[in-house]
């Protein structure tokens, strides 16, 4: 498996050096940026596979960097931040981050998160190469090959995580998927059973596909268990 190119966005030189040294020792290629503007420029011109992003940047908040990148790319973004509140984690995920690592962190945990993300990248690449079918359920249509979803033939503007959730549910239509199963499939074992984050994403997805999110037609909640996509005629 080829090692991905990683963009390290960190203004603290000591932390940045720790991360880049770790990457170098483990044969990862990397780019660096010490502020948000440079991060956006490197993400655009350097074509990295994964972004490691600090939120406390000198020129802008890291949330803005996430939102900017998400306007044109679904590249995995792993937040590395000293902000440890659940609300901070959920805000970052809602903005489009794929993972969240709290400072101080161990080198082993960072490498584990990278391995999980790398496996997801490989799986996504294989899926794109092998998947050519189109899923239809009621007014929802998902073109797996194109990576697009439609509602009444109008393209849905989904975040990468919302799209992955919709695909996972569609590929298991009629089956109840547990919180643990969904979080492991979407974020990997490091985020096992992160129900709070899952609820946030499920709520935003429902707002985009349901006529009445309070009386959902497509996604059914099984309280304390998980979710199921209903088959709609």
From TrEMBL:
Which BP terms from GO are recorded?
A: positive regulation of DNA-templated transcription
Q: Which PROSITE patterns match?
A: OMPR_PHOB (PS51755), RESPONSE_REGULATORY (PS50110)
Q: Name one Pfam family in it.
A: Response_reg
Q: Does the keyword Lipoprotein apply?
A: no
Using the record's annotation, list all stretches that form the OmpR/PhoB-type domain. 132-231
- Per its UniProt record, what SMART domains does this chain match? REC (SM00448), Trans_reg_C (SM00862)
Q: What does the UniProt record say this protein does?
A: May play the central regulatory role in sporulation. It may be an element of the effector pathway responsible for the activation of sporulation genes in response to nutritional stress. Spo0A may act in concert with spo0H (a sigma factor) to control the expression of some genes that are critical to the sporulation process.
> What keywords were assigned to this record?
Cytoplasm, DNA-binding, Phosphoprotein, Transcription, Transcription regulation, Two-component regulatory system
Q: What is this protein called?
A: Stage 0 sporulation protein A homolog
Q: What is the lineage of its organism?
A: Bacteria, Bacillati, Bacillota, Clostridia, Peptostreptococcales
Compartments, as annotated in UniProt: Cytoplasm
**Any one annotated GO CC term:** protein-DNA complex
